[in-house]
Amino acid sequence: xxxxxxxxxxxxxxxxxxxxxxxxxxxxxxxxxxxxxxxxxxxxxxxxxxxxxxxxxxxxxxxxxxxxxxxxxxxxxxxxxxxxxxxxxxxxxxxxxxxxxxxxxxxxxxxxxxxxxxxxxxxxxxxxxxxxxxxxxxxxxxxxxxxxxxxxxxxxxxxxxxxxxxxxxxxxxxxxxxxxxxxxxxxxxxxxxxxxxxxxxxxxxx
Length: 206
Hints:
Layout: H1 23-37, E1 45-48, E2 51-54, H2 59-69, H3 75-89, E3 90-91, E4 94-95, H4 97-110, H5 115-139, H6 144-172, E5 177-186, E6 192-201
Antiparallel strand pairs: 1-2, 3-4, 5-6
Helix pairs in contact: 3-4, 3-5, 4-5, 5-6
């Protein structure tokens, strides 16, 4: 009678000590949980083939969440922005769902107040993605001409992003600039009075 071989026994599991967060880490986690509970989460989409839909168990609520994040009451506008983001994130016929949801998170983080701010935020998300892609290309350059070309493209994209940020700031402030003029008045007897005159620029105020 053949002797049965002993079956291999499973290795004993080693107990791993449970990590105990520091006081600062616990505070950061609590603050993040509070922030998450206080606002709507950034909307996300699901892509199937060449179609997309809002990733929410209730269709209407998902559309409301999407439109709210874009500072609009128009579902048509919100749909159009997502379509454009998908076109920007597509590689051939393949739609990069992760990139689209990242762009939506960027828009949600900028918190646009109207359609114009949303369009600018969408462009900023697309330019940022292009900046990171170009940075990878520059890092992988194999020749000096390639490196120079990629560096020029990267600098142009980075400057464009900076200009977009400045444009958004000016739009949100109505183009107002605060100019502070310092002047010194010398009265009779040689006593100097230093004063500050504040003028609002770009509004025609004196």
